[in-house]
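[Amino acid chain]
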Amino acid sequence: MTTSAAGQPLIPQPPATVAALRQAVRQITPAALPAFTRELDQAADQSRQGSDLAPLQRFIAQWAAYVYIQRQPGLSADLRRWEERAASGDATQARQAASEIGRILDQAHAAVGLHSR
């Protein structure tokens, strides 16, 4: 992953297009490219089968939020810590972690102006 000055995003938030998001993922989290491609293929297939753009819109919203988080090393690290706590903590810690994960995801979706539902 590319590094940045303290507290600064690694890259600017890209437009919410497949091409721009793919390029951003390639830059900041290249290991996620196979998942990006697999999920894009699934969304495209679902859209074609149902003659509905909703699966592609959800895909773009989810990956725009992912990029929003991953381009900010501090926020990305916070999310990973909360995910680890959710997986390994007791019930109280898991509830707190779920709440914090939800807050981070809500912040990301609000920042990119897209909704995943």
Summary: The helical segments are 18-28, 33-50, 54-70, 73-88, 91-112. Residues 31-112 form one domain. DSSP finds five helices and no strands in the chain. The radius of gyration is 15 Å.
